[in-house]
Amino acid sequence: MTHPHKPVKKKLTASVKHPSKVLIGWQEWCALPKLHIPAIKAKIDTGAKTSALHASDIRPFHRHGELFVHFLVHPLQHTEKYAQVCTAPVVDQRTVKNSGGHKELRYVVTTTIALGEMTWTLEISLTNRDPMVFRMLLGRDALKGHSIVDPGKILCQGKFNARQLRLLYTHHGHKDSHFT
């Protein structure tokens, strides 16, 4: 019998199982298949509303009356060895407050993310994340309904070593590239 003034201790389980959600830590490897990015490490940031992708050489243009952007992504941290030139239609331009508290107008594109066994569509803003450690930030709008975040864990959905990344990017035909 329990004492009426003491809380009942319940056993907590470390793993959460939900058939339609993936368990993730505060950083995870993911892929952006429609942008031909086979692996990019993302920081999971539930404090950020919007997701962000490191992009440089962002160049807007019109095709059949619709606004598009060309941009360059160096998906791996601490190196510019691999690059991917991307093109995507612009779904919005938004003023976003960056980590320094400054507001900036960003292009927003829609793409597909693959994280663990799940794939879904997300909106992602394009910005220069060079000073940041992670090339991609996943905000709460992208995570909502798709994931359960354990901030005490990292890389719940797997890890890549340098050899695996080199093979993955070589297989996808990535190399140093820039706009001409």
The beta-strand count equals 11
Molecular shape: globular
Mean pLDDT: 82
Rg over alpha carbons: 19 Å
The chain-level structural class is mainly beta
- Would you state the CATH class? Mainly Beta
How many structurally independent domains? Answer: 1
Strand and helix order: EEEEEEEEEEHEH
Q: Can you count the helices?
A: 2
**What is the CATH topology classification name?**
Cathepsin D, subunit A, domain 1
Spell out the blueprint of helices and strands.
Layout lengths: L21 E3 L2 E6 L4 E9 L5 E4 L1 E8 L2 E8 L10 E14 L5 E13 L2 E10 L8 E4 H4 L3 E3 L12 H10 L9
Parallel strand pairs: 1-11, 3-10, 4-9
Antiparallel strand pairs: 2-3, 4-10, 5-6, 6-7, 7-8, 8-9
Task: Give a nutshell description of this structure.
The protein is mainly beta and 180 residues long.
Summarize the structure in words.
It is built from two helices and eleven strands, in the order ββββββββββαβα. With 180 residues, it is mainly beta. It has a single domain (23-171), classed as Acid Proteases (Cathepsin D, subunit A, domain 1). Strands 2-3-10-4-9-8-7-6-5 form a nine-stranded mixed sheet. The protein has a two-stranded parallel sheet with strand order 1-11. Strand 8 (103-115) and strand 9 (118-127) form a beta hairpin. The longest helix has 10 residues, at 162-171.
